[in-house]
What we know:
Layout: E1 2-6, H1 10-21, H2 23-28, E2 34-39, E3 46-47, H3 54-62, E4 74-75, H4 79-84, E5 90-93, H5 105-114, E6 118-121, H6 124-141, E7 145-146, H7 157-163, E8 170-176, H8 179-189, H9 194-203, H10 212-215, H11 218-232, E9 242-243, H12 251-259, E10 262-273, E11 276-287, H13 291-294, E12 299-306, E13 310-317, H14 321-339
Amino acid sequence: MRLILVGFGTVGRGVAESLLASEPELLVAGAEPRVVAVVDPVVGSVRHEGGLDLETLLKLADAGESLASYPRAEPVADLKEVLDAAGGDVLVELTPTDLHTGEPGLGHVRAALKAGLHVVTTNKGPIALAYDDLRNRAHKAGVQLRFEGTVLSGTPVLNLCEAGLTGAGIREIRGVVNGTCNFILTEMEGGTGYAKALSKAQHLGYAEADPSGDVEGWDAAAKVLILANSVLNANLKLGDVKRTGISGLTVDDIQTACAAGKTWRLIARISQGENGWKAKVGPEKVNRADPEGSLTGPENLLIFDTEALGEVTITGPGAGRRATGHAVIADLLAVHRTCH
């Protein structure tokens, strides 16, 4: 399985580390992924038909050196040049999310599908904004489009739905899908003000320098949209998701709820309305004893209310370099199993 990695920043390097760490399990499964190209406008773009050594790539990138200095590798200008050389089986798209245009990831995914490659991505933008189009292109090309890492990072929620909840009659999906907000709210329960809690989240790497994507609910809205469309065929757009962030909550709000045995959480919810599925993201007071209320720190959780099984709950890390890398490994194995 020849891989083309697009994006070799934090996520891309995490995927490289996961490929190295998971090599024994991959070999047992009969999968032998080989990275034949890396495309990144910042650290450099190279290809080698025989495969690139991941440890060498990581050393170069971590040292701030260009990947173009990789011994005996061929420098390339962009993804188009790599695809034109017809040397890959799977595009692994790992560039940052843009929820306005989906680019550059959306263009990368479309180009790979047009070239007949399977696609694995952790980038929420293309899936949130153009899922139906990309699904149809993948079907027409006879290839797979997989995106486990776009919702709960390495926690296997989409694979659970695909393999275990099909036919269970899902009535509602709800939960906590943004670890940054959950961390901030947990800190505020202890009396820390919003600004200080946010600053701590940024210091620990849970929040970006511009935290609006997390605290204003955009990240959670994209995730709930991906769930609604890929699991429930809801055919919703990002503008259909009702969205409210947590920046308006005060320590008084938090502690008043605590005194009543409740707590605030940013809840993502998909439910049936009069005209089909509807989705929303916003702060809700929940009982502390409930699964959502007992969740602390950056952990994520989803609850599937089903006809056949009642409530099915899955919880785990919703972010992190290694966790996201594991999502890519799971998707690559799924591609391998389907093709062999």
